[in-house]
Write a structure and sequence with these properties.
This protein is α+β, with helices and mostly antiparallel strands and 101 residues long. It is built from 4 helices and 3 strands. Strands 1-3-2 form a 3-stranded antiparallel sheet, with helices on one face.
């Protein structure tokens, strides 16, 4: 399963009215690892737009080198669904549903 999420603070994070909540990369990792045994993160795009090709290439190089704060978003490739899931972090919109289980 592949899940794409915008990077917190980017224009795509705030521009989509279907988003339930915004959080950072660490919380996404914690949530997905509660449901899957294998979670691989792949950053995409760049966070800051510019008219300078040199600045765009600089940002792409930073993302490639592991500075993921410059990424526009993240693709999570999730495999091996857990038989029993665990949640170390529960987003606000699931709190009521989780408490009923």
């Amino acid at each position: 399963m592949q899940i794409s999420v915008p990077n917190f603070g980017t224009y795509s994070a705030y521009g989509d009215p279907t988003h339930k909540f915004l959080t950072d990369l660490n919380h996404w990792n914690i949530m997905f690892r509660g449901f899957f045994n294998s979670v691989v993160v792949d950053p995409y795009g760049i966070r800051y737009e510019s008219v300078s090709d040199k600045w765009i290439q600089y940002q792409l190089d930073l993302v490639k080198d592991g500075f993921w704060d410059f990424a526009q978003g993240f693709n999570f490739v999730c495999r091996e669904k857990k038989d029993e899931w665990t949640l170390e972090y529960v987003p606000w919109f699931l709190e009521e549903e989780i408490s009923e289980i």
